Amino acid sequence: MGPMTETTGIAPFYDWLSRDYDAMTSFDQRFVRERPFIKLLVDNYGITTALDAGTGTGFHALLLAQLGVQVTAVDISPDMIEALRKRAAGMGLHVDTHVAPFHRLPELVTVRQDAIFALGNTLAHSASRADLLGTLTAFHSILRPGGVAFVQVLNYRQILATRERVQMVRQVGSTQFTRWYEYVGDLIRFHITQTNMESGKELSENSIILRPVMDDELREIMVEAGFEDVRLYGGISMAPYDPATSKDCVVLAQKRLSSP
Question: Model pTM?
Answer without folding.
Answer: 0.92
